Amino acid sequence: MLRLYQDAAVRRSIAELVRPIKEQGIDRFQIRDGDHLLQEVTKSDVELFDVPGTQELLLDEVRRQAFSITSLSFKEDNKWRLNDGQNTFSVSMKDVAFQRRVDNNQIAFAKGDVLLCDLRTIQWQVEEGVKTEYEVVKVVSHRPARQLSLFDDSGSTLS
Question: What domain range includes position 67?
Answer without folding.
Answer: 56-143
